Amino acid sequence: MSLQTDKREFNERTTDGIGNPFMRNAVSSAQDSLKTRRLTAAASLGDWEQWRTLGQQIRQHTLKHLDYYLGQLADNIEKKGGHIYFAKTKEEASDYIRDIIVKKKAKKIVKSKSMVTEEIEMNHVLMEAGCELIETDLGEYILQMDDWDPPSHIVAPALHKDRTQIQSVFTEKLGYTGDESPENLARFARTVLRQKFLEADVGITGCNFAVANLGAINLVTNEGNGDLTAAIPKTHIAVMGMERIVPTLEEMEVLDNLLCRSAVGQKLTSYISVIGPSASGETDGPEDFHLVVVDNGRSDILGSEFNEALQCIRCGACLNVCPVYRHIGGHAYGSIYPGPIGAVITPLLGGYDDYKELPFASSLCAACTDVCPVKIPLHEQLILHRQKIVKEKRTGAVERLQMKTAGRLLSSRVLFGKALRFANPASRLLSRHGRIVRGPELVRGWINTRDLSQPVKQQDSFRAWLDKRKGGAGQ
Amino acid sequence: MKVSIFSTCLVDLMTPNVGIAMVEVLERLGCEIDHPASQVCCGQPAYNSGYLEDSRLAMKNMMLAFEHSDYVVGPSGSCIAMFHEYPKIFKGDPNWELKAIALKEKAYEFTQFIVRVLGVTDVGASLEGTATYHRSCHMTRLLGERETPFQLLEQVQGLQLEPLKNSDNCCGFGGTFSVKMPEISGQMVDEKCGCVVDTGADILISADMGCLLNIGGRLSRKGEPVKIMHIAEVLNQQNTAAKGGSPT
Ligand code: SF4
């Protein structure tokens, strides 16, 4: 998979999403139940706003001194006998990983969920090199078994499927014979996966945060699959976006707290681990540790007006409150990063040619900004995108002209007055029973589903009423 | 107290009765009203669509229009929230930054002004009926005002307020969003209408006319008998049964 998960037009993808009751039901009930859980988990920390500010400060500080911390991380990993590789492009990243696999003559690979490996199309590269690759995160495993169905949520990749669908995937692809209870489905997957862990030559994981002063990585999972992936195979390759780093364990602790509460409404998840090159004499852990730090466009974002987007800790909370995501689902975004944060970073990583609609797929209700544990002003970033898209003249010529005209009209009392005098009779012409039933192309979609009331006739206008009053408050 | 009314282009164009109600309530509370004539629009539609340059014209016009006002009060949480964005937008501009800050500091949404500046929660309104209240996203999240409408509505005699499920979810208006992405917006407003109808209320109240036109338009298309009223109209009612306001 790559950043792009669906090449169809945005409109086609959203129509698809809107027409999928299974998915919408799954998404909205998940949103509704997560909301309460998140609020309770947040409240138990004390002053949530202060925690958010702290999270924001940690992320901003680290980004500001990213060079320093990446250098420190590299030194510490090498000191402990591990390897670190800085990949500028996605090709460099996946080539490096393939080279290790080839050198080790590895055939079987287990993987713990990682968005960035999707971004660099690693699965594809490794499978082409003849490896068997198994996703061990339950959600990802389901998607893999379903012929690599794309993920639809950052934290819960298979959120769009319900248990019946999962049961039929398992039955069809793996000969599962049990019922559709989540416990039985999970138990079955666990039995299959346990064998895969034991057989694997290489384990590949993502990285929630790299801890600079330790030369280690932090993994946060609910199923423990990240730990098994890192601990059992002889070789461990961790892959991270270059911004996912913290100075010390102390900052990691703060961010893990924010992450777990925001993502799943838990104080902490079941497994929080810190893993690095194993010191000599230790009996567990991999013999060979590699950390691949992926740039793939991130250094262009660093220091730009979109810098704050790099603060993201991928908790998915913004998706869990987004009313647009609620109705169109994750696949409609056409990217491995859906929802509000996806609408911000996907165009940055993948360009406007493919993703210029995403920043407009928001009502700017700011629910995402409000919930983000590291205070990314997501809705403002969407406006910034819109400004760039407009500046690059990627919006329609008609719209640009309308905006220009409206800009003039709405900044001058005289012109606006003329428009007012025109608007009332014009709307009457287009209306039936007090409802505007026809209209210019611009508002047609709106009128298809809603009635637009005609201006109230009792007064000519608010200004005229003011003018007529004794004492003349109006002017 | 001298108060400059910011009537908003939507009220000017579509629902003058909301502006009238606002003036009448404020006058009853002892305010001396003026309406600087050169005002038009806060610039939000163009700004939110990415047309920064085109929207700046409207914003500058507003800063000049209210330059000499003590207080600026408008019937829209969303437009007032837009005023609050001006200092960010004009940051570093030697001619406009200070004007932007000045406007932000004296601009209040209608209910906010009554409660926070005038210190009044009972305006002497009475209206028989059952109502539910729609919080607009910009008022609650951008302007950060969640309480004042409820403080005022609780004092309206005869009015029973029903809680609205998922009240923090956007109604799908979002200005040009509802025009640009009508399909998605339509789904959002549909869900909102369902929640409104489920409350069993006869009236839907809000402090933002945009949301009301959006939800009201959909309710009307679905044939639901819920009336929409701007909160200024509610607060201007005295001893009347719910006869509905604009413009359903
Ligand atoms: S943008 Fe904020 S809320 Fe969304 S995933 Fe990132 S950290 Fe979480």
Automatic annotation (TrEMBL), chain A:
Renumbered residue ranges of the record's region Disordered: 1-22
SUPFAM superfamilies xref list: alpha-helical ferredoxin, NagB/RpiA/CoA transferase-like
Transmembrane annotation, as ranges: none
Residues in 4Fe-4S ferredoxin-type domain copies: 302-333
MF GO annotations: 4 iron, 4 sulfur cluster binding; metal ion binding
Biased composition annotated in UniProt, kind: Basic and acidic residues: 1-15
Entry keywords, A to Z: 4Fe-4S, Electron transport, Iron, Iron-sulfur, Metal-binding, Repeat, Transport
A Pfam short name: LUD_dom
The name this protein goes by in its record: Amino acid dehydrogenase
TrEMBL record, chain B:
GO molecular function terms noted in the UniProt entry: oxidoreductase activity
A biological process term (GO) from this entry: lactate metabolic process
One GO CC term, this protein: cytosol
Domain Cysteine-rich per the UniProt entry, residue ranges: 3-83, 132-215
Coiled-coil ranges per UniProt: none
Job of this protein: Is involved in L-lactate degradation and allows cells to grow with lactate as the sole carbon source.
Family assignment from sequence similarity: Belongs to the LutA/YkgE family.
The name this protein goes by in its record: Lactate utilization protein A
Lineage of origin: Bacteria, Bacillati, Bacillota, Bacilli, Bacillales
